[in-house]
Amino acid sequence: MRQFFSLLKWALxxxxxxxxxxxxxxxFINLQDTAPSTQxxxxxxxxxxxxxxxxxxxxxxxxxxxxxxxxxxDDSPMTTGLELKKVLLEKDLLNxxxxxQKPHYQLVQLPLESxxxxxxxxxxxxxxxxxxxxxxxxxxxxxxxxxxxxxLLQMPRWQDSPHFNADISAxxxxxxxxxxxxYLLDIYQNIDSTSAELIVAAIERDMLFxxxxxxxxxxxxxxxxxxxxxxxxMQLGEVILSQPPIEPNIATLPTSWNKxxxxxxxxxxxxxxxxxxxxxxxxxxAQADDVSADTASQIASSLLSPLMQNQDTANRYAAxxxxxxxxxxxxxGLSIDGISSYIYNPLGKYILCTGMPSFxxxxxxxxxxxxxxxxxxxxxxx
Length: 382
What we know:
Radius of gyration: 27 Å
Structural class: mainly alpha
Largest sheet: none
């Protein structure tokens, strides 16, 4: 019996001490983070260059104007945008920017909100516009907003910062997309008094603006909003050019419609740079001490924090984004090699294996733009 209790004692001690010994071993292995990889260094250098260039190019930057696009009617969008940019620089992930609760102007209902989603949008949107009795009044009331949008279209550059992608509430996209539709509807309303050349030029100006955003933005949300606006340009542009006063043909269409979408428009590379810096800032913020947490949570955080190597995780995510090699061991399962691969930076590898979204859906949406353009040209050739 004495031997039995002795064995039981050692068994209990082993069960108690083994996890502690394992934790200490893993903790020792994770004492030091890795150095920045070549790709991480390139990303950091690109971000520094972008931010420096942004400080030098503000007054003619459509991004700054867009930040303040929802300014009150008599206020300057550029002044408002510069003020908001200053606020963005002072904020962090734990304190996102909050715009005013009450918007400076109300969003209006347009006579085409549902028709653009229809397969036969051309017929449905035409019918909706023909049946609308207050379109002229609506456009007159919002003429100041159309003029503001026209001012935006004339700006020569778009340059944002990948640091600002966490503050998705900072960009008033609803107001901006409304202004685009009002702008295109104004062209439609004045089609009888405007030459075909000026109509095509106005549609082209809008298209080039959104292509510029898609080509130059480092923020994924900006990229996907530009996709929506480019699609609307082609849809409403086709509605406009199919009106009786105009005889559309392949030679008189907007130049951008006749060209395949540029690689930069359909590429996610710049947006991935923004996602990388957002990810690295997020994991750093997640490890900040939370004084409001309960004691148990603080103890758990203290125990787990050393098992997260921020730079190694950032290096691996950079490699994933650039397809430069297998940087995780997600596919090894519960094999001995798979488990042993998690000894160094186990939390970072776990996050990369289980918590990172795929960009496939975004890329498919981008690819549909070129398909939409080709279908548009095919229809207009008939």
